[in-house]
Design brief:
single chain; alpha+beta; 13 helices; 13 strands
């Protein structure tokens, strides 16, 4: 069974205004010292943090690591009167986030210029283990056609500047401004992949391979295919659901896919970002336009053998049932704001990084802390 890994990005938000706030000095280091599985690292902005699982084989192991890491960052956020938010974009912003100190991030900031001021985005990245270079390129092509429906299922960034953006995934629209974003082209083989990436670097469109913003790419660090189309997710359950779909697609050598061009996939990605599961998308098995739920059902039928082989069929089925009942992350965020305003959204976000009591390895807390929302 192919192993997989999950990278989750979070924004620290002020518990009342829901604007990004800078992590207190040493927060990442303190969390890392406490860890018992997975890793916590810095991200592009000083208001961000990233949690990475170790390579896992089962959904249960992935969810256990994610819950542990989310509990740690949730505890540290609460100590700073903040929320560690699993959302693709913040509800509101002061557009004043600083870039984390790092030579790599300095290069990225110089490249992006003014775009950095609006680049408060969080994603979910799933690595699926594929040992052979050429097979990784073939897997890219298998994933490409399903990118729009994967985004529709996981859109979780409906707000911008304290207002409803009208999009299920505003993060995807911000990402679109970057070079080498959204759907990658088709590649003949691994040498073609390397040559096309090299050309982007020679153009100075990207500073290095690690700056590729395609929604799916070959990892430079690991022998994996990295699916990057997803917004950060509200819950560990949501993230594992996305990971299991990714693994099954990567492992399904399906010859029934039509060769939908980049323009068609990108157009479908736009409609998925705009309307979520109410979108119309191109079905890669037919090349025809259909409702997002119909495309999702067809995807599920195609990958069913891989899901059964890995023992993930029931858990993925539960994920689809949850989506049909509760909606996507964007749906849940909108509903929280409609019912209770920003305080309701704060409660929803806090629930995604629940604080364990006691936190393993943490010092005793002298006094009970106030609730994150008054």
């Amino acid at each position: 069974m192919a192993r997989f890994g999950i990278e989750e990005e979070f924004l620290f938000l002020d518990e009342h205004s829901l604007v990004p706030v800078t992590l207190a000095s040493g927060t990442r280091e303190r969390i890392t010292r406490m860890r018992t599985g997975g890793e916590v690292t810095r991200e592009y902005l000083s208001s961000q943090i990233e949690c990475l699982t170790e390579p896992v084989s089962t959904a249960a192991d992935a969810e256990a690591q994610l819950r542990h890491l989310r509990g740690l960052i949730g505890w540290h956020a609460q100590e700073q009167h903040a929320i560690a938010a699993g959302t693709g974009t913040p509800y509101a912003t002061t557009r004043s986030s600083a870039v984390s100190p790092s030579p790599h991030y300095d290069d990225v900031a110089e490249q992006l210029g003014h775009l950095t001021r609006d680049h408060e985005v969080n994603g979910l990245h799933v690595h699926v283990e594929v040992g052979d270079d050429e097979e990784r390129v073939r897997a890219l092509d298998r994933v490409r056609g399903w990118l729009p429906v994967l985004l529709a299922l996981t859109g979780d960034s409906p707000f911008v500047h304290g207002r409803d953006s009208g999009f299920a995934s505003w993060r995807s629209i911000l990402i679109r401004r970057l070079p080498s974003s959204w759907c990658p082209p088709r590649f003949r083989d691994y040498d073609d992949y390397r040559a096309q990436v090299r050309r982007l670097i020679d153009l100075r469109a990207i500073t290095e391979t690690a700056s590729l913003s395609w929604a799916v790419r070959i990892s430079e660090r690991f022998p994996t295919v990295e699916v990057r189309v997803f917004d950060a997710q509200l819950t560990a359950e949501d993230s594992v659901f996305a990971a299991l779909l990714s693994r099954a697609i990567v492992l399904t050598d399906d010859h029934r896919q039509e060769h939908v061009g980049v323009d068609g996939i990108d157009a479908s990605l736009w409609t998925a970002a705009r309307r979520g599961m109410d979108a119309r998308l191109i079905d890669p098995t037919t090349g025809e336009v259909d409702d997002a739920w119909a495309v999702a059902d067809r995807m599920l039928a195609v990958i069913a053998p891989a899901l059964r082989e890995s023992g993930d069929e029931d858990r993925v089925g539960e994920g689809f049932a949850r989506l049909r009942t509760l909606g996507t992350g964007a749906d849940r965020q909108r509903r929280a704001v409609a019912e209770e305003g920003p305080a309701g959204l704060a409660r929803l976000l806090v629930a995604g990084t629940p604080v364990p009591h006691p936190v393993p390895g943490s010092p005793p807390r002298p006094d009970p802390q106030p609730s994150p929302v008054p």
